Amino acid sequence: MAVKKPTRRGSRLSQVLAGILVNSVYEMENYPVVLLNTVVSPLSFLLVIVFVSRGSLFGVGIEGGFIMATFSAGMGLSTDLSHLKNDFKLQDMIVSSPTSWLTYMIGISLSEIVYSIPALLVLTILASFGLSLTLAGVLEFMTVLLLIFIASSSIGFTLSTFSSDIVQSFAFSRLLSTFFSTIPPVYYPITYIPLPFRYLAYLSPTTYAAELVQGIGGYLSLSSTTVVIDWMVLIAVTIAVFVLAKTKARWREV
User: Fold this and answer.
1) CA angle, 252 as apex, 80 and 156 as ends, to 5°?
2) Residue 47: partners with Cβ closer than 8 Å, 6 or more residues away
3) Which of 45, 66, 63 is nearest to 213 (CA)?
């Protein structure tokens, strides 16, 4: 009886699932403490903001927690892929196989989302009490988070191909996470920043994402022009860093 060959789509799916198993399921099963960091990071900032604002920024803080968790998940590729590339020489094997860089990146990216499920679950429960969104608002919110995740995953993937040591990747990952998800007005409205320092916040793409979700949640009043600009900048940045990952990442030069 003839053996049926797997289809290209089925092969890609199995490759993506392999990435999830290798990078997240194995570690979560054997080292459950790794899940603690994904929960503590976004929730710690949320608690600080809530205490300082005496609860007035609870909803904004929840939205900021989602942005930080999503951005950090994407940046997690920088350290995880560096570990797999430099310590296990996995990228050498992937390059010599039919697996493309995009399939590899998608598989590891989805594994980072698996890591973040505990944090996202807690934030979702809190959001059911602190946020009031329409169905359209939920879809917009998820679109913003998806763009942030694609952008941060592209950055993380690119950095991992240049990294020669996981310690170096940790430094870059923490530095970028600080600049993109901690310093910008993610956990609070940008109107809290006095002029002219407010303009510096717009150097970070997460500022535009935060403005959009805060507008969706009703915590920030945005003009239609500002909404359009925010969407255009966020989409443009996402496309730009994705193209950068495709063209500049050292995929085969390992």
Assistant:
1) 30
2) none
3) 63
Check: CB of residue 205 under 8 Å from CB of residue 180: yes
Answer whether 116's CB lies under 8 Å from 155's CB: no
220: which 2 tokens?
């920030």
CA distances from 178 to 45, 108, 173, 183 (A): 12, 22, 9, 6
Q: Give the whole-angstrom CA distance, residue 18 versus residue 15.
A: 5
- 3-class secondary structure for 149-213? HHHHHHHHHHHHHHCCCHHHHHHHHHHHHHHHHCCCCCCCCHHHCCCCCHHHHCCCHHHHHHHHH
Per-residue pLDDT of the chain (254 residues; tens, 9 = 90+): 444 545 655 566 666 565 555 555 556 665 566 666 667 777 787 888 888 888 889 999 999 999 998 998 888 888 877 777 766 676 677 777 777 788 888 888 888 888 888 889 889 999 988 888 889 999 999 999 999 999 999 998 898 888 777 777 777 777 887 788 778 899 999 999 988 888 899 999 999 999 999 999 999 999 999 999 999 999 999 999 999 999 988 766 54
- Per the listing, tokens 């240049």 go with 162
Contacts of 254 (CB under 8 A, 6+ apart): 85, 91, 92, 95, 161
Residues 238 and 150 sit within 8 Å (Cβ to Cβ): yes
Q: How far is CA 156 from CA 72, 182, 244, in A?
A: 10, 17, 11
**pTM of the model as a whole:** 0.83
Which residue in 72, 50, 71 sits closest to 61, CA to CA? Answer: 50
Contact criterion met (CB below 8 Å) for 181 and 68: yes
* Residue type at position 163: S
